[in-house]
């Protein structure tokens, strides 16, 4: 290939000036999840392909169309993780976590990969923050999981978000539910889109999810069919989830068409939608059957994941005042050979005093060094010239207003500390 390389379609370079959003999300995510009693898990970015096809489901878009699957040199079929739940569930089983006191509560933050059609809010490599809770089956746990997610979004400073919620019943009731749906949809088969006709045969629940115009009216009605055919137990479970959400002060909208694009769900499913774009920032639900499918002990579970890039888009659109990321406290500027040597000692001293110190020791002109300081968003500069070497002193310059003062070497770090404190006020 000739010419310059470009990043693969649907991926991103996230440069330093953009990082404040990432820090804001990561820091708040870690704080909220830790406070809620979740422990962090790091797990592989690739797994056996069969793990995903079995958990997410052969007929889902993710498995059928969107996986990055490859054979490694040992001829094993591996797949870059398109989502986190399957890997975390595998880790729970493999590490014998079912023997620990339940519930086991885990959270994660990292990249996922889907061969999706790139467009607004859709990437081929994107980050998710996710949470999974294992070993408890109680409607209050479903409600709590939703409440934690909302807490996180409130902490970020986002508004105008809507929780949509639905129930797709438990595994026992699924055959009856599917039969009712198939009966209803078959009666209207002629009006359905080609894709929905295909789904009707393979995975009828997903017809409710259709974005095709001609399906809308029927899919709306099918939502009602779903709700009417929930088993008594599932209805009671769902009603309790909603009651607990009311008690917790979490607002929600019922969306009878919400079925989610992954096969492992049972009972409660939910999404959090940015009302201004209609895009889902995150979603999740209960998945009581997955552990057994993966060969583990029968363990109820519930979880969710949120998209980091979509959340950042939302922060920008709502003009949330996100704190600046870590920046350089003080930038050391040197002029002349002797000053360069002195700069090495000064950098060490300021570093040891606990400041973040920038420099461009390879540059000689003051202008060039100030430009780097500016790019680094440095707050102060320490300037060392020949005179300062001779006088055992340094100039401290406030980079926002240009004011300067000269201080003796021995009081330099104390003076830098004082200046930084003054600026914070
Ligand atoms: P999901 O709905 O497929 O669920 O993904 C969760 C979130 O990831 C979405 O709401 C969206 O914000 C983000 N997302 C998905 N695809 C893309 C993409 N191509 N580009 C950018 N962002 C994207 C899951 O992944 C489940 N594992 C959630 C879960 C956890 N359920 C139970 N536990």
Strand and helix map with partners:
Blueprint: H1 19-35, E1 39-40, E2 46-48, H2 49-56, H3 61-65, E3 69-71, E4 77-80, H4 85-94, E5 104-113, E6 125-134, H5 139-156, E7 161-167, H6 174-187, H7 194-202, H8 216-228, H9 232-247, E8 253-254, E9 266-274, E10 279-286, H10 290-293, E11 301-307, H11 308-317, E12 330-334, H12 337-352, E13 357-359, H13 366-375, E14 380-384, H14 386-391, E15 393-398, E16 404-408, H15 412-424
Please characterize this protein's 3D structure.
With 425 residues, this protein is α+β, with helices and mostly antiparallel strands. It is 40% helix and 21% strand. The protein is built from 15 helices and 16 strands. Strands 1-5-6-11-10-9-7-8 form an eight-stranded mixed sheet. The protein has a five-stranded mixed sheet with strand order 13-12-14-15-16, sandwiched between helices. It has a three-stranded antiparallel sheet with strand order 2-4-3. The longest helix is centred in the middle third of the chain and has 18 residues, at 139-156. It binds histidyl-adenosine monophosphate. Histidyl-adenosine monophosphate (HAM) binds at residues 83-85, 114, 116, 121-123, 126, 128, 130, 132, 261-262, 280-285, 287, 303-307, 309-310. Histidyl-adenosine monophosphate is lined by residues 83-85, 114, 116, 121-123, 126, 128, 130, 132, 261-262, 280-285, 287, 303-307, 309-310.
